[in-house]
TrEMBL record, chain A:
InterPro entries registered for this protein in UniProt: IBH1-like, IBH1_N
Record keyword Transcription present: yes
Chain ranges of the IBH1-like N-terminal domain: 5-66
Name of this protein: IBH1-like N-terminal domain-containing protein
Keyword presence, Cell cycle: no
Organism: Hevea brasiliensis
Annotated keywords: Transcription, Transcription regulation
From TrEMBL, chain B:
Region (Disordered): 153-235
Keyword Transcription: yes
Domain BHLH: 228-278
Biased composition (Low complexity): 183-195
Record-given protein name: BHLH domain-containing protein
Any Pfam family matching the protein: HLH
Organism, scientific name: Hevea brasiliensis (Para rubber tree)
Major localisation: nucleus
Basic and acidic residues bias spans: 161-182, 196-221
Length: 188, 417
């Protein structure tokens, strides 16, 4: 129940706050480090606009806090956010049993591939199975793209993708305008 | 849901994409249907909205689907005798308004091209009602099919009704002559159903296949189609497939360029490409911001932002046109850039229009190139060495402006120089 405008404004506010927390002035950061910090604060900001309701937002926060070395910083950024997000950042998102699930799925897949018999099947069935394989492959790719996608079933994957696309668009728009603004300022 | 309200809702607000889509579907339904149906849909969608608000829609659609359906008990109260089957006709009677005989009768005949109705079924049914049908056929049938399809979309979210376009099975029968026909059809259908143990007493006589009523709120009630397997596995599969296809339709609206693509694999391809491009854009933009600001203090920007961003925020193109670099969007993008440029000029009082047309025009020139290349070329080039390339850019822009015939940009350039 959000208009695109509110998403963007919320995201911008939180992002700027996060950037200010990053405390750049003291250190001499290389460009790559600056970029990482910018991206981190942007990701956390866009995930927090969802307030932990969606799976991808929680997964994004978990990934960000895992990849970025400075957990304290991440926690500070999330200081005003809901409890869910804070929990997610402190614990790993992936509980141990999920790893088991992933591993067992991989084993199943391999065994299925091994014992498949190349029998002569009617053409219609063959076409259907090929189509199914194509869809399955692409679903796998989509799962790898959407944060936290590996744990979702097809239906919730599509819902999460919907939400994720909207938030990504808002993020890109805001970042673009900020980039333009800084360009213009610097150009002056 | 009123007609007047819907366009505003679509444009303005705080609805999630799915709500908007559903609202749009409902609006389309209203557009195409007649008055009595509109009143019904008002009710149904009103209830639907009520239900959602009651639940405090939080983006968790799974809840919505499986939650209990409030209208059903009230429908049931009317008694099946009033409802002509479980479909638009039936809902048409919800208000107790005039029983639409034509509605019921026309539902028996096969729908025009959109629906593949088994020919045999249609014939059997049509024979019995030939004289009455003849004059109602064309209008009623089309309306019926439309209603059926659209109502299903609405219903899908509240209660999963697997019954789709009429395949000649929805002869719920007019009360006058329906019962006999119904019993005939009942004999043909199989009797297993997914939720048979939860079934109400009422209704096998009304439908060709088992009707499952809402007993407990947590179950999804499905009806088997005529001539299709009715074991629980295939029913469940069908429910799942329909859910997926419904959501894919929403995605189709969201992702640009997906209108022509049918089929899951192609759609998923487009979605994957789109998500990848958005993610790459985020990466690139954060790199760009890191390059532009050596110190990354955004305080100065905040002052600027207070002026400019509110205006920009209102001027943000809806649904990411600015981030869409497909060929179609190039022209749009150029227009957007010019809009933004004018906005900047007006609200900031600066001659800040240089860069946007720079970006826009460069993009239109180098349209065959991919996004990252263009970004890298135009932006990093301009920013990492601002002073030396600035003049070169201006010169380029001036030339380009002449070539493109964009007088505005060249005027601005002249002012700048």
């Amino acid at each position: 129940m959000r208009a695109p405008q509110t998403i963007k404004q919320e995201f911008l506010k939180k992002w700027i706050l996060g950037l200010q927390l990053c405390d750049f002035a003291k250190q001499n950061m290389s460009m790559l480090e600056r970029k990482k910090a910018i991206k981190l604060s942007a990701d956390i900001a866009i995930a927090s606009t969802r307030n932990g309701m969606t799976c991808w937002s929680r997964a994004l926060v978990a990934k960000a806090s895992r990849d970025y070395g400075d957990k304290v910083l991440v926690e500070r950024m999330l200081a005003s956010e809901s409890e869910k997000l804070k929990k997610v950042s402190s614990i790993g998102l992936i509980a141990p049993n999920k790893w088991v699930i992933i591993r067992s799925k991989k084993i199943l897949r391999k065994s299925r591939r091994a014992r498949r018999v190349r029998s002569s099947v009617p053409l219609s069935v063959l076409a259907k199975s090929i189509a199914k394989k194509m869809v399955k492959k692409r679903t796998q790719v989509l799962k790898s793209l959407v944060p936290g996608g590996e744990f979702m079933d097809d239906i919730s994957l599509i819902e999460e993708t919907l939400d994720y696309i909207i938030s990504l668009r808002a993020q890109v728009d805001v970042m673009q305008t900020l980039a333009k603004a800084t360009e213009l300022l610097n150009g002056k | 849901m009123n007609r007047a309200l819907l366009p505003e809702m679509l444009h303005s607000t705080d609805m999630t994409v799915l709500e908007r889509q559903r609202a749009r579907f409902k609006w389309q339904q209203e557009q195409q249907q007649q008055q009595q149906q509109q009143s019904f849909f008002g009710d149904l969608s009103g209830v639907f909205q009520l239900q959602q608000q009651h639940q405090g829609f939080q983006g968790d659609l799974g809840e919505v689907v499986t939650r209990s359906v409030k209208p059903d008990p009230s429908l049931m109260d009317n008694g099946w005798s009033d409802l002509v089957g479980f479909g638009p006709c039936g809902y048409g009677n919800y208000n107790g308004s005039g029983f639409d005989v034509n509605c019921a009768i026309s539902s028996t005949s096969s729908c025009p091209p959109a629906v593949v109705a088994p020919a045999t079924n249609a014939k059997v049914l049509a024979e019995g009602r030939e004289p009455v049908l003849s004059e109602k056929l064309n209008s009623g049938v089309a309306r019926e099919c439309l209603k059926k399809r659209k109502v299903d979309k609405v219903q899908n979210s509240t209660k999963v009704v697997a019954e789709d376009d009429s395949r000649g099975k929805r002869i719920k029968g007019c009360p006058e002559d329906g019962e006999s026909k119904n019993t005939q059809k009942n004999n043909k259908s199989s009797s297993t159903s997914k939720n048979s143990n939860k079934e109400n007493s009422a209704e096998t006589s009304k439908d060709n296949s088992k009707v499952t009523e809402v007993q407990k709120p947590d179950y999804i009630h499905v009806r088997a189609r005529r001539g299709q397997a009715t074991d629980s596995h295939s029913l469940a599969e069908r429910v799942r497939r329909e859910k997926i296809s419904e959501r894919m339709k929403y995605l189709q609206d969201l992702v640009p360029g997906c209108n022509k693509i049918t089929g899951k694999a192609g759609m998923l391809d487009e979605i994957i490409n789109y998500v990848q491009s958005l993610q790459r854009q985020v990466e690139f933009l954060s790199m760009k911001l890191a390059a532009v600001n050596p110190r990354l203090d955004f305080n100065v920007d905040n002052l600027f932002a207070k002026e400019a961003f509110p205006a920009w925020a209102t001027n943000f193109p809806a649904s990411g046109m600015s981030s869409d670099m497909t060929n179609r969007a190039y022209l749009q993008f150029n227009q957007v850039q010019q809009q933004q440029q004018q906005q900047l000029v007006t609200c900031c009082g600066l001659d800040v229009g240089i860069n946007p047309p720079d970006m826009g025009l460069r993009r239109t020139i180098s349209s065959p190139r991919s996004i990252p290349e263009m970004f890298l070329d135009s932006s990093c080039f301009t920013h990492i060495q601002p002073s030396s390339t600035w003049d070169a850019d201006l010169q380029n822009l001036y030339n380009v402006a002449f070539e493109q015939g964009t007088i505005e940009a060249s005027n601005l350039l002249k002012m700048e120089m």
